[in-house]
Amino acid sequence: MESTVSTSSEQIIELFRQYVIPNYGRFPVALARGEAAYVWDVEGNRYLDFFPGWGCNLLGHCPPTVVEAVCDQVARLIHVPNTWYTEAQGLWAKALSERSFGGQAFFCNSGTEANEAAIKLARLHTPAKRYKIITFSGGFHGRTLGSTTATAQPKYHEGLGPLVAGFVYAPFGDLEAVERLIDDETAAIMVEPIQGEGGVVLPPDDFLPGLRRLADENELLLIFDEVQTGCGRTGEWFAYQYFKVQPDVMTLAKTICGGIAGAAMLTTAQIAPSLRPGMHAATFGGNPIAARAGIAMLETIDRENLLEHAKKLSRVFRERLDQLAGESELIEEVRIAGLMIGVQLSIEGAPLVKACMDRRLLINCTHGTVLRLLPPMTLTENQVHEGCDILADAIKQHGGS
Ligand SMILES: *Cc1c(COP(=O)(O)O)cnc(C)c1O
User: Fold this and answer.
1) Is 393 known to be catalytic?
2) Which atom of ligand 1 is nearest to the CA of 228?
3) Are 401 and 395 in contact (CB under 8 A)?
4) Quick check: 178 and 170 in contact, CB under 8 A?
5) Catalytic (active site) residue 243
6) Largest CB tally within 10 Å, which of 1, 146, 225, 341?
7) Which atom of ligand 1 is nearest to the CA of 253?
8) Would you place residue 399 in the very low, low, confident or very high pLDDT band (cuts 50, 70, 90)?
9) Catalytic residue among 225, 238, 243, 317
10) Does position 4 have pLDDT exceeding 80, yes or no?
């Protein structure tokens, strides 16, 4: 857009002041262009992005294969409703199925919608009196009312009540608490294999296998919310493969289309018919543009061997961040699964995010004290070092070593 050349961040921020509902905290920077690991603001400053697209851009900014697929599709057929078949949606479902547990897909547009589909499926699939869903404190499942209720964090519930009935909460990692909550009205257990927004919290070793066992013993559906962990983020296609525990239902969004909006719920062919015609829908779900982007994303990861590359990058991050932790009392713990990275601080993280931004590195802070990196799997090793050098410098300036 040529018009952005003469526009300043300040002018754009003024538009927001007047015309955009202020429900987000935003950095005072307007971004204009991205390429791989870098993004530029309208003033032309370049940032190294270790949190591109809130973790959605797993292939980095504007990955050429996704751009090409979208440009080709947008000129061919933008949208048709789900009363028709399109080859793109069918091939997208096949591509996801072949890389996971061989099931079937329902497509929608966001993570919260995929979770709503899973909630409905759980209630429809189990006997009528079963409606309760067990979720976990510190979890995050999205912002529609069902998913908000599933999100067991009081700060997201304030002022919204009454919430949706039928959600009960257990501490993350506590199998005995789950067992105590299960009764003859329980339909499902819904969990993030790794809590993302909750601070990149890894499950204790016995936790996911234990949930699988409890679900089997009590005929419950085990739902994995892989909106943040899915599609290659952990160095495996899905976190359930990383932990070797298979769910009955899996939800995907964020990374699924390489940065284009899209989402899916996958389940086995045996459970899938319970989401019978008329019970659920998404007008834009599985549209040809999202489908082509989604296929391009998966095929690019295969063709460029990016799962292996992500594992290699993960080891470099591990080495660098462990070293940093050894040098700085501000770092309490480093939690890593593939390219999902949390740095537990002993102080608030926001000033460090700001210090990194001043040094042209973009990262995130979640849960107050956890620096979160969701870097693209297309980084070079040099870029990992470039970013870690900046982070080390920012921490040092905060008296951290
Ligand atoms: C981001 C996220 C969601 C919500 O996704 P939206 O696309 O914002 O609706 C749900 N679950 C998890 C685990 C997430 O990280």
Assistant:
1) no
2) 15
3) yes
4) yes
5) no
6) 225
7) 7
8) confident
9) 225
10) no
Q: What is the pLDDT of residue 143?
A: 98
Active site residue 140: yes
pLDDT tier at 7, thresholds 50, 70, 90 = confident
**Residue owning the nearest CA to atom 11 of ligand 1:** 141
CA of 254 to the centre of ligand 1 (A): 7
Task: Return the structure tokens found at 3.
Answer: 């018009």
Which residues in the chain are classed under CATH 3.90.1150.10? 9-61+306-397
Q: Strands 361-362, 46-49: parallel, antiparallel or unpaired by DSSP?
A: parallel
Query: Mutation test of ligand 1: which of 56, 113, 141 has the most ligand atoms closer than 8 Å to its C-beta?
Result: 141
Task: Give the pair of three-digit tokens for residue 125.
Answer: 């699939």
Mean pLDDT across the chain, nearest whole number? 97
Give span(s): CATH 3.40.640.10, the chain: 65-303
- pLDDT tens for 134-193 read 999 999 999 999 999 999 999 999 999 999 999 999 999 999 999 999 999 999 999 999
Is residue 350's pLDDT more than 80?
Answer: yes
- Spatial distance between the Cα atoms of 148 and 150, rounded to a whole number of angstroms: 5
pTM for the model stands at: 0.97
* CATH code for the part of the protein at 9-61+306-397: 3.90.1150.10
Which residue, 284, 279, 282, 286, is CA-closest to 121? 279
Question: For the domain with range 65-303, which CATH number is right: 3.40.640.10, 3.40.50.410, 2.30.30.40, 3.40.1160.10?
Answer: 3.40.640.10
Phi first, then psi: give them for residue 191, nearest 5 degrees.
Answer: -150, 145
